[in-house]
Amino acid sequence: METFTKQDKVDLFRRSSFLHGLPFELLSELAEITELVTFEKGAVISRIGEISHDVFLVVSGLMKVSVCSSTGKRITFLLVKEGEPYNIMGPHMPAPRLLEAEALQAMTCLRIGGGAYLAFLEKQPQIVHNIIRWIGVSFDSAYSRILDLMEKKVDLRIMRVLSSLHQKFGSPLMFTSVELSEIAGTTPESTLRAMGQLRALGLIETGRGKIWVKDEKAMIDDEFGKMIL
Amino acid sequence: METFTKQDKVDLFRRSSFLHGLPFELLSELAEITELVTFEKGAVISRIGEISHDVFLVVSGLMKVSVCSSTGKRITFLLVKEGEPYNIMGPHMPAPRLLEAEALQAMTCLRIGGGAYLAFLEKQPQIVHNIIRWIGVSFDSAYSRILDLMEKKVDLRIMRVLSSLHQKFGSPLMFTSVELSEIAGTTPESTLRAMGQLRALGLIETGRGKIWVKDEKAMIDDEFGKMIL
DNA sequence: CGACTAGTTGATCGCCGTCAAGTAGGGTGG
DNA sequence: CCACCCTACTTGACGGCGATCAACTAGTCG
Fold it and tell me: Which residue of A has its CA nearest to B221?
């Protein structure tokens, strides 16, 4: 593994929108308590029902965070990419959570132990503002997805998912129908049917595990409550 | 309006599970920056699309917090009762949110201005732990409700709603079919049909705007992800 | 070249949202 | 006390969306 210096960490922090606006001294101190870890593709970072108190900041790769019911139904609710944090609430939570986190690609992350994280918060309360703002955005996104599930047809949900993914990751999107269906809250079959319509309209092109969004503007709806992944 | 002394405030804080475990000095300081306000039944505390930076702690009465889509579909996601906070993320958020808060009964609350709230957080970082824990529980509840919507039938959802409400408020529950349907994410008709079945099974009794849960145990399911309202 | 995975399409079926019509409680004013 | 109205509740009928099952095609990797 190549070296990842303290300076590299601070550079990452500076680019991270999560840590935007925080002073150099704080980022520098944060760098001290983080440790570089790697996960290979498909690795499980945190299993459902486990208590996980470690906080991660993604350096490279992509992490999928999902919740899973007892009957196996799963919904993906976060795709954590470079510069974004995972499990920022974990150290505060007493009970195990329903979360499951998995590496969609080979990843490197910075890990912060739960204890060190909590101590850091008390010492550097400025960062609390960033943390709660970040949680707040996720929270609003969660409830806009509930509204989506209740009142939007599958076709429209798939369109919104593709549009959001395209905004975040650009083209081509490397997702399968199963992955998309877990984001949109539907089945792979319905996902493919919906994508077939979009393809017929010329809005997207699809390949095996790849999707190109051709007409970005036509896929954006003016609805309140943009989906955040 | 009767007097509500600083001591009364601190007593309320002590009973609040939200503020559990915090030292007297902190509660005392918190009391200093809060102001008693009242709302009559049906009053709108915060309208959708407005930026609201005031934080509230409910002294008495009941507040309904809902999100609302552009087509008018509404889902209630929080019922805030005595000792519970509302809008603890608001002061941190830059953009208007989709929330709407309304007094279901005549209410008294303690109000904290957004600026004073943020200043208090920086000065008393201990309280951050309580805040994020509280948010975390709501967050998990939100995602367990997404799973519910996806895979549970209406009958079961209604049962879960009634069970959760009974745990929080006891009998009789003073809710109409419209209110319940907005919590369960369905229509009033389906809500009443589901309740009809529960009534036929002897699990509940219903009156106009009142519901008595007769068999508490039979209504509890062993599912992960308890619904929090 | 074979096996596995991803995508595609068709047929069926049941839940539940919607519309509609009718009942009953509870408050108000006379 | 009764007549009235408004709201909440109740029940029935219908229809469409989408989950599910199933069969088939087509890439990709060893």
Answer: A70
Residue B125 dihedral angles phi and psi, to the nearest 5°: -65, -15
Give the closest residue to A45 by CA, choosing from A30, A62, A28, A69. A62
List bases, strand D, within 7 Å of protein CB.
8-13, 17-22, 27-28
pLDDT at site B222: 63
| Structure confidence by residue, pLDDT tens digits, B150-190 | 999 999 999 999 999 999 999 899 999 999 999 999 999 99
Name which of A93, A138, A147 is nearest B133 (Cβ-Cβ).
A93
Contact present, B19 and B84 (Cβ < 8 Å): no
Contact status, residue B130 vs residue A55, Cβ threshold 8 Å: no
Alpha-carbon gap, residue A48 to A213, rounded angstroms: 33
Number of alpha carbons in the 13 Å side-chain half-sphere of residue B145: 30
> CA nearest B110: which of B208, B196, B18, B195?
B18
Output the distance from B206 CA to C24 C1' rounded to whole Å. Answer: 13
Q: Is the CB of B74 under 7 A from strand D?
A: no
User: pTM of the predicted model, to two decimals?
Assistant: 0.92
The helix (run of H) or strand (run of E) holding residue A114 is: helix A114-123
The whole-angstrom separation of Cα B197 and Cα A84 is: 47
Residue B137 tokens, joined: 């529980």
3-state secondary structure of B33: coil
B132 pLDDT exceeds 80? Answer: yes
